């Protein structure tokens, strides 16, 4: 639904993400497995990367105008959308491109049914600064989540933020992964870590409580007031039926919409060929 | 006709037993022959036929009606009829009439026929018919060279012919047609031989952090920075600009209504920052744990904003336009057969699998990596010939026997197996010559060399040497006039006709029409004679003309000629520069990673022999700066030039009749947008036809209008009376500085837009 949230952005009014909708988005490919870590992700276990990219040293952000910052973040967001992380949705804030609202749906595992809202804070000297920070609205019971602030320990995965190698979608993917693969080393929440190691049953029940707590606060007003903040509301047919309908039919209508908007290109090149007019005639899409 | 669509019998009756199709198609030929040979030119900025240009010309209107009728018939008729009519148009009109017309000996006639062709291509909406036109342009060989090559070569000229050709290519690029782009540029980039081996994988990389944009913006000449403007005028200048682009609030609203980009907050964020009330907008940023929000770090804001302010406030507009253009182009290109990302088609795809029965000897590929040209040439016309109609009787040059090129070129072909390939090989050889011509031609003309194409045979080099040896003998120096140029052009044409450019291409007598040409050119917009220009001489020096050794990468004649024109920007007329930069910007909007990385990626490392766009622009920057340094009153001139360009834009936008041509394609091309002040400077790419046309018109009127007199009266171009040439040179250079600066912003914006193109546009269309 990161896709649909992006689609909705033009309509600024649409701020509501209904909890019920989470079953309906056209995400048929929700595989219940972790995506493999891309090669360029810094390994979690290896905090200090020996060879920081040369680009990170030169080209300080001071020489970049705000246009670059803005577009860098826009490009990062585009990458997130392309990534289609299952169950992870983000939306940049209206007021600052440096703050993104997000929500993670956990679909299986210990944290199954968890719906965790969070906020990503991006340093203003991005991409030359530290790694973005990710703070859950409610401190989830998790070894890597600070029990007071709700901040996720992102740093351990991105000890050094390397432009061109590290991207915000990786942070989001990391945030999703910690709920599927529990890591207890040097925890922010030692209690959770110890319980996980020593008393998994108690850990599980604490997790269930935490998930319930989060769900019970689902309909709360967003922690940060912003027109683009993600809010949940109970199903209201008056509003949501229409939105749902729109979502389900969106692809098609958008396609047509675009067709009328854009000039279609031409091609008579047979796929696989590099000769002009190699395609047989009359197969031209108009 | 419509009935035939559903009734095969009717259709086959029409095709087999009636003369409907031949009559219709040859009717075009007849009507074409009655078109004016020479187009009455209204101003020195004229470069394409607008509707109001041709609607009043009875013969042209008649032709256009007839063409539209053909188009309509093809649209509704049965495929049989459609096919037959398209074939007849190709074989009965384009090949026998349009082909020779484009190769007329007088420049005037070339201009007219090129303008007609542009009008036709722009007007034909029916894909099947358009296909015939494009196939004609891309594949048909007239006297040995494809029409495309001939047209590309003419971009290198320095006259109205260049402008008309530029508009033709603008129209071709606006089609977003894979076949066109393949032939023009992509096929030269597919082998990836232009990038360092280690860089090949970087072709697909997106420039996420605006490095390329920063690089482009850094090339804005120092003398064009606002702080270098004379202080008293500065405020005034800014006032004009501000008015042109609306107050921030106006801009914000228009930004919000942009349909696709979906970043209202981002953009309005900027607007707020620029406006006086910016602080409070930022102050509203919610407190967040430890977030160093922009508002919380005002310390390093001011310098940055100064940097943006220096963009004269219109960079946002460029960003918005670039976004639209790139998105639109990406969307249009989704019907293409391949992404052209360095992998599909693979770098080798041009070499081993050319058209079946390709008569290229193995040793043709023997020396080093096969150059693109080899492959291109190896593309026999037959490749597209499956659809060529029965009457397809192209005047191919006769085989080897009478082809002087055969001798020159003998060596590589020696190992060629089989004799069935004669024809194609001939074609191959012949095609070298225009290339050689093109090389030599600008030398004599004092224009810079197009970056030399890749030669693959020593024989060509010898031919080239011969041409070069001849070059100094030409009365170049002071005599690099239009006359000598058009003479060269004649020779070029003649050489092509002779099929090889060997010995027989002795001087033709200058054609009768030439004086007219020259006169016209002189009075109009030809670049001033600049024999003394050291740069031009350096550029024209023979060593560069030798070109890279055979195995060196070559990015294609189209890119070569565009780059060489760009390098010469300082001397081009304002109109040529506006068209030229528009064309390059159009090219830069294409999303194919091969093209995008070649033009826009500042991080890319190319082979040493490959010139990058940034290098070219860097040299222009230096030229402008040294010109500015030599011109005491440059700041004042620049300011005036800007002001008057803006003023003219404002003055004339209102009255400019909608230049949109009537037929259908134009509707999509010409997006209606509100004319705004400074439209010329903000060279809107998404409405090339109208925006530029209007700008041209505006400029023209300004030029001749009272403003110019005021300008002259103000003693600005005071040399005009005594030393017209010098005045023209100064004027071109000053206008060039303005256009160049805007062009860099446009390119920077396009580079940024590529990183944020919506991924939805790139997804395959839903079934």
Q: What does this protein structure show overall?
A:
The complex is a heterodimer of chains A (286) and B (767). By secondary structure, chain A is of the alpha+beta class. Chain A is built from 7 helices and 4 strands, in the order αααββββαααα. In chain A, a hairpin with a 6-residue loop joins strand 1 and strand 2. In chain A, helix 5 (190-198) crosses helix 6. The model of chain A is unreliable at 1-64 and 257-262 (pLDDT under 50). By secondary structure, chain B is mainly alpha-helical. The chains are: A alpha+beta (286), B mainly alpha (767).
How would you sum up this structure in a few lines?
The complex is a heterodimer of chains A (286) and B (767). Chain A has 286 residues and is of the alpha+beta class.
Structural class of chain A: alpha+beta
Radius of gyration of chain A: 22 Å
Find the structural class of chain B using helix and strand composition.
mainly alpha
| Biggest sheet: strand arrangement of chain B | 1-2
> Under the CATH scheme, which class of the domain at 62-228 in chain A?
Alpha Beta
- So how many helices of chain A? 7
Per DSSP, what share of the residues of chain A sits in E-state strands of 2 or more residues? 5-15%
Fraction of residues in helix of chain B: 55-70%
- Based on DSSP secondary structure assignment, what is the total number of beta strands of chain B? 2
Strands ordered across the widest β-sheet of chain A: 1-2-3-4
- Main beta-sheet annotation of chain A: 4 strands, antiparallel
- Taking Cα atoms only, what radius of gyration of chain B do you get, to the nearest Å? 26 Å
Q: CATH superfamily membership of the domain at 62-228 in chain A, which one?
A: Ubiquitin Conjugating Enzyme
Low-pLDDT runs of 5+ residues of chain B are 231-311, 352-485, 492-550, 651-694, 701-720, 762-767
Q: What is the end-to-end distance of chain B?
A: 31 Å
What is the makeup of the main sheet of chain B?
2 strands, antiparallel
């Amino acid at each position: 639904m990161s896709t649909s949230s992006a689609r909705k952005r033009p309509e600024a009014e649409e701020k509501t993400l209904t909890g019920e909708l989470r079953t309906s988005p056209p995400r048929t490919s929700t595989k219940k497995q972790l995506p493999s870590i891309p090669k360029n992700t810094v390994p979690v276990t290896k905090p200090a990367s020996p060879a920081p990219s040369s680009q990170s040293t030169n080209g300080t952000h001071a020489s970049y105008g705000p246009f670059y910052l803005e577009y860098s973040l826009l490009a990062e967001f585009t990458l997130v959308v392309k990534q289609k992380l299952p169950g992870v949705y983000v939306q940049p804030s209206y007021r600052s491109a440096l703050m993104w609202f997000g929500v993670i749906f956990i679909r299986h595992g210990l944290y199954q049914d968890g719906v965790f809202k969070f906020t990503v804070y991006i340093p203003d000297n991005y991409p030359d600064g530290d790694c973005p920070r990710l703070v859950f609205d409610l401190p989830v019971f998790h070894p890597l989540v600070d029990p007071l602030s709700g901040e996720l320990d992102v740093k351990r995965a991105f000890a050094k933020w390397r432009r061109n190698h590290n991207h915000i979608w990786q942070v989001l993917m990391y945030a999703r992964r910690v709920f599927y693969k529990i890591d207890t080393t040097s925890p922010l929440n030692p209690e959770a870590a110890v319980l996980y190691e020593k008393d998994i049953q108690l850990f599980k029940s604490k997790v269930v409580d935490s998930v319930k707590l989060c769900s019970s606060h689902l309909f709360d007003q967003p922690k940060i007031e912003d027109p683009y903040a993600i809010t949940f509301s109970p199903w209201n047919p008056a509003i949501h039926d229409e939105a749902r309908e729109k979502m389900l039919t969106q692809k098609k209508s958008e396609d047509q919409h675009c067709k009328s908007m854009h000039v279609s290109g031409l091609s008579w090149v047979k796929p696989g060929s590099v000769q002009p007019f190699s395609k047989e005639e009359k197969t031209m899409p108009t | 006709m419509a009935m035939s669509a559903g009734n095969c019998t009717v259709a086959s009756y029409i095709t087999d037993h009636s003369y409907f199709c031949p009559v219709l198609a040859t009717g075009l030929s007849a009507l074409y022959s009655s078109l004016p040979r020479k187009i009455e030119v209204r101003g020195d900025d004229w470069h394409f036929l607008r509707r109001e240009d041709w609607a009043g010309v009875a013969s042209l209107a008649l032709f256009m009606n007839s063409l539209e009728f053909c188009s309509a018939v093809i649209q509704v008729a049965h495929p049989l009829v459609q096919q037959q009519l398209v074939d007849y148009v190709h074989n009965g009109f384009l090949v026998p009439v349009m082909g020779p017309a484009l190769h007329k000996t007088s420049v005037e006639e070339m201009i007219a026929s090129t303008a007609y062709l542009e009008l036709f291509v722009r007007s034909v909406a029916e894909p099947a018919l358009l296909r015939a036109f494009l196939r004609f342009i891309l594949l048909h060989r007239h006297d040995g060279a494809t029409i495309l090559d001939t047209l590309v070569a003419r971009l290198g000229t320095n006259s109205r012919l260049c402008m008309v050709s530029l508009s033709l290519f603008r129209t071709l690029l606006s089609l977003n047609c894979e076949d066109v782009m393949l032939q023009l540029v992509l096929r030269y980039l597919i082998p990836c031989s232009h990038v360092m081996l280690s860089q090949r994988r970087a072709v697909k990389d997106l420039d996420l952090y605006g490095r390329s944009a920063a690089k482009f913006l850094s090339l804005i000449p120092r003398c064009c920075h606002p702080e270098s403007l004379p202080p008293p005028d500065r405020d005034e200048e800014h006032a004009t600009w501000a008015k042109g682009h609306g107050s921030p609030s106006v801009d914000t609203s228009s930004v919000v209504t942009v349909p696709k980009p979906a970043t209202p907050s981002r953009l309005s964020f900027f607007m707020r920052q620029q406006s006086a009330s910016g602080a409070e907008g930022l102050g509203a940023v919610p407190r967040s744990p430890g977030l160093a929000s922009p508002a919380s770090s005002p310390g390093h804001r001011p310098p940055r904003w100064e940097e943006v302010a220096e963009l004269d406030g219109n960079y946002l507009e460029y960003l918005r336009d670039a976004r639209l253009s790139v998105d639109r182009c990406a969307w249009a290109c989704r019907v293409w057969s391949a992404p052209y990302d360095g992998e599909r088609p693979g770098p080798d795809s041009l070499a081993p699998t050319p058209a079946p029965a390709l008569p290229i000897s193995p040793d043709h590929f023997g020396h080093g990596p096969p150059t693109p040209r080899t492959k291109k040439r190896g593309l026999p016309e037959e490749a597209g010939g499956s659809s060529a109609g029965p009457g397809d009787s192209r005047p191919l040059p006769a085989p080897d026997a009478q082809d002087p090129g055969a001798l020159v070129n003998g060596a590589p072909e020696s190992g060629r197996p089989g004799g069935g390939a004669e024809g194609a090989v001939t074609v191959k050889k012949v095609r070298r010559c225009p290339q050689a011509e093109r090389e030599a031609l600008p030398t004599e003309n004092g224009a810079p060399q197009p970056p030399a194409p890749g030669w693959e045979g020593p024989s060509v080099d010898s031919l080239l040497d011969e041409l070069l040896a001849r070059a100094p003998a030409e009365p170049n120096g002071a005599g690099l006039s239009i006359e000598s140029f058009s003479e060269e052009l004649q020779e070029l044409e003649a050489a092509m006709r002779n099929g090889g450019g060997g010995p027989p291409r002795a001087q033709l007598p200058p054609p009768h029409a030439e004086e007219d040409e020259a006169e016209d050119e002189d009075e109009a917009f030809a670049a001033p004679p600049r024999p003394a220009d050291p740069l031009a001489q350096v550029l024209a020096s023979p060593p560069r003309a030798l070109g890279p050794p055979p195995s060196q990468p070559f990015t294609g004649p189209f890119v070569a000629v565009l780059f060489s024109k760009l390098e010469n920007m300082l001397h081009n007329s304002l109109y040529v520069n506006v068209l030229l930069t528009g064309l390059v910007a159009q090219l830069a909007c294409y999303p194919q990673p091969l093209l995008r990385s070649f033009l826009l990626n500042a991080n890319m490392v190319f082979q040493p022999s490959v010139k990058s766009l940034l290098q070219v622009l860097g040299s222009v920057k230096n030229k402008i700066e040294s010109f500015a340094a030599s011109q005491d009153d440059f700041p004042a001139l620049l300011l005036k030039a800007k002001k008057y360009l803006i003023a003219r834009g404002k003055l004339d936008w209102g009255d400019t009749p909608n230049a949109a041509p009537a037929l259908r394609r134009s509707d999509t091309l010409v997006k209606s947008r509100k004319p705004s002040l400074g439209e010329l400077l903000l060279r809107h790419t998404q409405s090339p036809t109208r925006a530029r046309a209007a700008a041209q018109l505006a400029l023209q009127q300004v030029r001749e209008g009272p403003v110019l007199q005021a300008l002259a009266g103000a003693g600005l171009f005071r040399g005009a009376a005594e030393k017209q040439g010098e005045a023209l040179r100064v004027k071109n250079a000053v206008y060039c500085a303005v256009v160049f600066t805007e062009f860099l912003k446009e390119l920077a914006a396009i580079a940024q837009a590529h990183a944020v193109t919506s991924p939805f546009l790139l997804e395959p269309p839903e079934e």
